Structure to design on (268 residues):
């Protein structure tokens, strides 16, 4: 086996290993039960998952800003946040 | 990301978030002229919370990954700048067109006449094709991950895993704060 080929095959294994580990993070991992999905499909799913997480962060931030607008410094809500830090 | 490291990250994230929100709030109070009740407009507050959340997440993550540095290097004024925007898509499309033109021009300049199609193919080596396929596969993923544009595929996958795990934690903390405060 030429040195170039062994280097390439190690990278291929690493990539497959990383991709299967990535698969366990995705929400579909629980449903699929261990079957292998194609790399492209997994990459696409990762992208859409990140997108949905971004959207969720945006929605929660909006919700928080609405809540904070009604909150003043001495309200119980503010106290809860302070207690979360202790 | 499980157990104590997840909790440590979430606490760090929460602390950073509160601190930066307090900083935003006091800055707004100092700059707003006169009116006692006005702190920030709703839009400003929304933007402040979003950017605070991203910066807090990046700061709490620290140096173990590359995406935090990318976030902190270009703090978002509006939404996440590393997301593909329409001008970016247009630019990418025109770049593709230029590349295609350059490729055919290159083959034409290379020799006098003959079969230009065969010549075009020989100009593009197989490693170049492999590289282009890999880039095509990961093109969208690169845009989703801060700092992902310049990474090789393995680092990109590692960054993706790290980023997803920490986004998870970020969502978790924000959800718990919202539920606690309402």
């Amino acid at each position: 086996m030429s040195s170039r080929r062994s280097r390439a095959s190690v990278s291929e294994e690493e990539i497959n290993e990383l991709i299967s580990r990535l698969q366990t993070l995705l929400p579909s991992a629980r449903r699929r039960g261990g079957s292998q999905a194609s790399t492209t499909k997994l990459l696409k799913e990762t992208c859409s998952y990140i997108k949905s997480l971004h959207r969720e962060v945006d929605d929660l931030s909006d919700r928080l800003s609405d809540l904070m607008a009604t909150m003043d410094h001495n309200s119980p809500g503010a106290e809860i946040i302070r207690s979360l830090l202790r | 990301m499980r157990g104590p490291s997840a909790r440590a990250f979430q606490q760090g994230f929460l602390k950073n978030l509160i601190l930066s929100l307090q900083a935003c709030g006091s800055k707004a109070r100092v700059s707003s002229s006169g009116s006692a009740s006005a702190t920030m407009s709703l839009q400003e507050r929304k933007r402040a919370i979003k950017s605070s959340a991203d910066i807090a997440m990046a700061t709490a993550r620290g140096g173990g990954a590359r995406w935090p540095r990318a976030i902190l290097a270009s703090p978002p004024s509006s939404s996440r700048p590393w997301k593909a925007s329409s001008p970016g898509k247009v630019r990418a499309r025109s770049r593709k067109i230029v590349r295609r033109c350059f490729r055919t021009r290159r083959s034409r300049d290379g020799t006098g006449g003959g079969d230009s199609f065969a010549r075009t193919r020989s100009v593009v080596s197989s490693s170049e094709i492999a590289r282009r396929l890999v880039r095509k596969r990961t093109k969208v993923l690169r845009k989703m991950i801060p700092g992902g544009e310049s990474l090789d595929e393995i680092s990109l996958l590692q960054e993706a895993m790290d980023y997803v795990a920490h986004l998870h934690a970020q969502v978790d903390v924000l959800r718990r704060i919202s539920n606690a405060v309402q």
About this structure: Chain B touches chain A through 40 residues (CB under 8 Å). The radius of gyration of chain B is 23 Å.
